[in-house]
Amino acid sequence: MNDRDNGQGLSENGNRLVEITLDEASLGTLSSDVDHERKVAIFDLIEDNSFCVEERGDGPYRLNLSIAENRLVFDIVDRTECQCAIFGFSLSPFRKIVKDYFMVCESYYDAIKTAPPSRIEAIDMGRRGLHNEGSKLLQDRLQGKITVDFDTARRLFTLICVLHWRG
Length: 167
Prior knowledge:
The protein is an alpha+beta fold and 167 residues long. It has one domain. It is built from four helices and six strands; from the N terminus they run βαββββααβα. The strands form two sheets. The protein has a four-stranded mixed sheet. A two-stranded antiparallel ribbon has the order 2-6. The protein is elongated and about 50 Å long.
């Protein structure tokens, strides 16, 4: 395998996700907007990501995200199809950000139907700010276990929000 370092200590080829699934039992009924966000986040993640299970470096990886017993679960399989890690993280630190993010997203989806562009832009700035905050929190929570770049954290945060969605 020809792995090159991307300048952050992450391999462009080996330390990356090649498949992401969301546990069906963890998903609620998704609106068309939320389902679209899920599909885009997964597509974008597969296309471009940096993901390394610390102290292993045996990617590429397949990730299954789920919620079990009020915990966000990262179930990771390595390139040999062997389970290499399972990490569970408390959902409590994400609750307020996800709740606020859903409220802003709802306002955004309503606004794009009838609001003037200036209003849509203002709501979108708030939405992106919350998304960035959630992404940074995720990076912090993963520290010492999984290394991801900011763009990967953003897309994973989108999927965490999808798992929180209860329609």
